[in-house]
Amino acid sequence: MPDSATANSRSSSLLAGLGWLEHAFLPAGAAPPDNSAFAHQRHSAAVVLDEQAVPAKSCDADGVIGVTTRPVAIYTADCLPVLIADDRMHHVAAVHAGLKGALAGVLFSAIDRLLALGARTDSLHFAIGPAIGPCCYELGHEVLDEMQNNALLRQTPTWQQQQPRNSRALRPQAEAHTQGIWFDLPGLARQMLHQRGIPAAQIEILEVCTYCMAEPHASYRRNTHFRDGYAARYSWIQRCN
Ligand SMILES: [Zn+2]
C-alpha cells in the first residue's frame, strides 16, 4: 500500500480494542487486501457469507459476513461503510449501507444473520466509517415522506432544516441545491441499531464527512458538483485467528 494510503487509512478504537481482528477504512483509491471477499453491490438488503463472495464480485450482495480468516470488504463513496465484530463467535461483517440499502434493511439482515450464527446483541460491536455527513447531505422532502412510510423504521429519523456548520471541514461544505433538508445518515444507522437492541457503548461513529473532510476524490456527490473525480473507498475487516 502506498504511504499516502496508509496515512489516510482510518480505524475504530472500539473494534481495535477487541484484540482479535484487523480492520481499516481505507482512503479513496486504495486497494483492499488481495484475498478479500466482496460482492457486487446493489443497494439491497442481501447479505452473504465470505466464501460466496469469492472471487470478488462473483455475487450480488451489500453485506459480507466473515466466518473464516479471509478479509471481508465493501466499497463506498458517500454511502455508509459499517464494520461489525461479534465478540462471542469471532465473526465479522462488512456492510454497505447507503440510504437506499439502510432503508431496505441491510443492517437488520446482517444482524439477523450474525445472531443466527451465535452472536447476541450484547456481543455485537459496530464501527460506522466515513460517509457523507449531516453537514453536506441535502435530501428532497419526498425522501422524508418515503421514510415516514417505511415499515422497518419504528421512529421517523431526525433531520435539520438548516444546514449544520462543520467546524472540522477541510474544504467548503456542500452548497444547498434543492431547498431540501439536511440528513444524518450515520445517525439513521445508529437509530436502526438501537432499534435492534444494540446499546450505544457498542457503536462508534467516526464522524468523517467524505464531502468536506476526507481526502480528495472521496465523494461521489462532490464530484457531481465539481467534476474533480472520485474513486471507491474500501473498508475491510478480518478475524486474525
Ligand atoms: Zn461535510
CATH superfamily: CNF1/YfiH-like putative cysteine hydrolases
> Which radius of gyration do the C-alpha atoms yield?
17 Å
- In DSSP terms (H or I, runs of 4 or more residues), the helix count works out at 7
> Which shape, going by the Cα principal axes?
globular
What do we call the CATH topology? CNF1/YfiH-like putative cysteine hydrolases
Reported CATH architecture? 4-Layer Sandwich
Instruction: Give the cofactors and ligands.
Output: zinc ion
Order of helices and strands: HHEEEEEEHHEEHEEHEHE
Main structural class: alpha+beta
| CATH class term | Alpha Beta
Beta-strand residue percentage = 15-25%
- N-to-C span: 23 Å
Largest sheet: 6 strands, mixed
How would you summarize this macromolecular structure in one to three sentences?
The protein has 241 residues and is an alpha+beta fold. It has helices at residues 3-8, 13-16, 99-104, 106-116, 141-148, 185-195, 220-226, and strands at 21-28, 47-49, 63-66, 72-76, 80-86, 91-97, 124-128, 138-139, 159-160, 181-183, 203-205, 233-239. It has a six-stranded mixed sheet. The chain has a three-stranded antiparallel sheet with strand order 1-12-4. Strands 8-10-9 form a three-stranded antiparallel sheet.
